[in-house]
Amino acid sequence: MHQDKDYWRNLKWPAAPNNDDYNVFQSYCSGSVLLLGSTHLLLPLCNEAWDLEPKYDSPKIVNRDWFTLDQHWDTILIDGGLAFGKESTARLLPIVLSHCNRFVARAFLNPNWPTKYAVYFPQAHELNPQPTEHPINEVYTFYIWNKK
Fold first, then answer.
1. Per-block average pLDDT, block size 10, for the chain (148 residues)?
2. pLDDT value at position 56?
3. What is the 3-state secondary structure (H, E, C) of the chain?
4. What does the alpha-carbon distance between residue 116 and residue 79 come to, in Å, rounded to a whole number?
5. 117, exposed or middle or buried, with CB in 10 Å at 0-12, 13-18, 19+?
6. Torsions phi, psi for 38 (to 5 deg)
7. CB atoms within 10 A of CB 72
8. Distance between CA atoms of residues 33 and 82, nearest Å
9. How far is residue 114's CA from residue 100's CA, in Å, rounded to a whole number?
């Protein structure tokens, strides 16, 4: 998954965010911003991005595992990363939420394209703690956890 750079670089909307999605992410960003992953369109929003296998050349991208998060960020963003599995999401949420004031996730609900790595499509009520939802369409939504 991590070394499949061509796959990640060639994603098109709705698998990848569009400018409207960028604007939604931007509206929730404040202070220091960490991007989990290296979603190209979202790089201008963050101070730093963590990816185990960076997909682009950018001084913002650090080769680092999300589960090693050990510093505080005002805002943490993720695009599609909750879809990597129920267990992964259950493990990631408490780590991320203990290290930020706000966590914003674009989450797939009903992908209308063949998914290669996306296997989990959580509804808000399935997540603990339950996020606020910023609905977009039937295919994906934004989940927001505000701690302040």
1. 73 95 98 96 98 88 96 98 96 98 97 90 97 97 93
2. 83
3. CCCCHHHHHCCCCCCCCCHHHHHHHHHHCCCCEEEECCCHHHHHHCCEEEECCCCCCCCCEEECCHHHCCCCEEEEEEECHHHHCHHHHHHHHHHHHCCEEEEEEEEECCCCCCCCCCCCCCCHHHCCCCCEEEECCCCEEEEEEECC
4. 15
5. middle
6. -130, 45
7. 13
8. 18
9. 33
pLDDT at 4: 73
Round the CA-based radius of gyration of the chain to a whole number and report it: 14
- Among 20, 51, 23, 19, CA closest to 35: 51
Question: Can you tell me which residue has the tokens 């805002």?
Answer: 75
Amino acid letter, 100: C
Q: Which long-range contacts (CB under 8 A, 24 or more apart) does 46-51 make?
A: 46/77, 51/2
Q: What is the pLDDT of residue 116?
A: 86
